[in-house]
Specification:
- The complex is a heterodimer of chains A (113) and B (111).
- Chain A is an all-beta fold and 113 residues long.
- Chain A has no helices and 11 strands.
- In chain A, the strands form 2 sheets. In chain A, strands 2, 4, 5, 6, 9, 10 and 11 form a 7-stranded mixed beta sheet that branches. In chain A, strands 1-3-8-7 form a 4-stranded antiparallel beta sheet, with no helix packed on it.
- Chain A is globular and about 40 Å long.
- In chain B, strands 2, 4, 5, 9, 10 and 11 form a 6-stranded mixed beta sheet that branches. In chain B, strands 1-3-8-7-6 form a 5-stranded antiparallel beta sheet, with no helix packed on it.
- In chain B, strand 6 (56-59) and strand 7 form a beta hairpin.
- At the A-B interface, strand 5, strand 9 and strand 10 of A face strand 4, strand 5 and strand 9 of B.
Amino acid sequence: DVKVTQSSRYLVKRTGEKVFLECVQDMDHENMFWYRQDPGLGLRLIYFSYDVKMKEKGDIPEGYSVSREKKERFSLILESASTNQTSMYLCASSPLLDLYEQYFGPGTRLTVT
Amino acid sequence: KQEVTQIPAALSVPEGENLVLNCSFTDSAIYNLQWFRQDPGKGLTSLLLIQSSQREQTSGRLNASLDKSSGRSTLYIAASQPGDSATYLCAVGGSNYKLTFGKGTLLTVNP
């Protein structure tokens, strides 16, 4: 079974803090994704990585950066957290030849106060 | 730009009823369409994936259909159970590797 884990289920941070959200997958997948999910807006893609040290912006990259130093780990970084980044963050991974077969982690609910 | 719409936004049915969830998309040039399930506060679980060349997929009590030309998909759930209560999301795979998600249908199955 593919397993995607996220470092925290719930996180509370203050405005202006630097926040790291970690995602690890154990299926040797090349592709990894970060989404945010908000009521009324659905899931939106923040960043995508198709290989170590490779990344592409998604639909809403502003205010975020990512890091992929190892194949199994994909980190989402909020350089200076703001209240409008309060959201549910979902990580996903997929095999090289099937970008669409995405396996999701349990999510991190981030609250920025 | 692809847009995915799910109707209804919420649905409440008694246990045992058969039901249909609807998904429509604006750009018919899709690679595939997936239905996901999301339990409250949890991640997504893929239920069914239909490739663009297929018309339907079945898994147990679930049947998903795809009509690319009309930009529609349905998820049919037979003999619904309280354990089916969740949010169901439709996602369309486009040529640019992206999944475009609908906002979901919140299903409640009452015992």
